[in-house]
Every structure is written in C-alpha cells, then in structure tokens.
Amino acid sequence: MTESPSPKVSKDQLAVTEKIDSMPEPYRSVARRLHHTILSAGPKLKPRLWYGMPGYATARSAPVLVFFRLDDDLMSVGITEKAYRAPGPDAPDTLMPCAWFLTELDDAGADRIAEVVRAAFAE
Question: What does the pLDDT average to over 5-33?
C-alpha cells in the first residue's frame, strides 16, 4: 500500500502546477519540462513555491536546493547555496556555476539539468 501525500504536500504540488500553468507560452512548455526533469532526476524532491516560483527540497520544511524562475521574459534554473557543489571540469577554479538562463529546453539541456539536480545531493 502506498502512502498518500499529506494535504500540505498536495497543496504545495498544486500551487507549483498552477504557477507553471499560469506562465505564458513558450515558458509554460519549458517550465513543464523543467518540472518533470527535476522530479525525475530527484525523485525524493518535494515541489513548493519559493519566492513565488517553483522550488524543490527534500522535505516540506527543508531548504530549497533547486529552483526555476520566470522574470521579465527571462527563464532561469539554478541551485541554491544549500545544494552540494563541487568544482568539476566546468569549474576548474573557485568560481562555480549555480544558475543558467534558457529560452528552450532540448534533450541535451534536460540531460544537463538532470545531472545538476543529481549532483545537488552528492555528498
């Protein structure tokens, strides 16, 4: 028997879905794919509104690790300071990427975002 989500979790999920649905195209389609990509890469993540936009944390009361925003016709996706970050080939020095702008989301972009989400939990 699977546990049904708590009313607060369901309310949070609904609020995120409504926020995404309220976005104008083409951002709505990008946001839907981002939402699916983030939840697929981080199945333990719980969506909720964070500063009025979708954010994802490991628990309702835990800090947001991954987010995306739409501001002034500019969509961005990023990780917060609470996500695990380690320099890699993309960041050979102390300056590490934490946010990216996008106008569309192709398969390669979705794969890269999934890598970022999975890495946010690697400690």
Answer: 91
